[in-house]
């Protein structure tokens, strides 16, 4: 796998321009990549297949509509590192930037594993008012915070977020301790997030890859 790396910080370049990889166009495909530090997943339909993404805080962020898929036996991980200069109580994977329930954007992670070298990792935080993120069939190590998700210290956002979990496994899969605003999805609720139509993939992914059950 090729390595995409960048050591820029938000202080140096601003939040968006500090990203290692920025995807703003529609119909972006990333396959078999190591993306190290930050992925700005913003604007458009995106498909990430069998990628290893490594970072510290909010390292998958933006307002894109994206499917992250592990397909077959390839390594596919989200790896969370500790940030020595950051808030020790705020290790976060996603900061999806949907601002209204009328916006048809969000991130769907299907299969793969969450691991790392830090602890009490949040799967997402409400950077904006109405983020939408779903993890399905995902193996979660014990590094995941028991509550799972953060309202970004803004309690009112618990009413507007869409954070979902479906058939996930591992020591970090603890539905009994999740925040009350987290949805444990039914089969019917999860189905739209498991298929390529989530990113309109049948229109532009050629040939359409197979999504494992």
TrEMBL record:
One of its GO terms (molecular function) is pectinesterase activity. Its EC number is 3.1.1.11. Pathway: Glycan metabolism; pectin degradation; 2-dehydro-3-deoxy-D-gluconate from pectin: step 1/5. It is an enzyme of class 3 (hydrolase). InterPro entries: Pectin_lyas_fold, Pectin_lyase_fold/virulence, Pectinesterase_Asp_AS, Pectinesterase_cat. It holds the Pfam family Pectinesterase. GO terms for biological process: cell wall modification; pectin catabolic process. Residues 37-201 form the Pectinesterase catalytic domain. Belongs to the pectinesterase family. This is Pectinesterase.
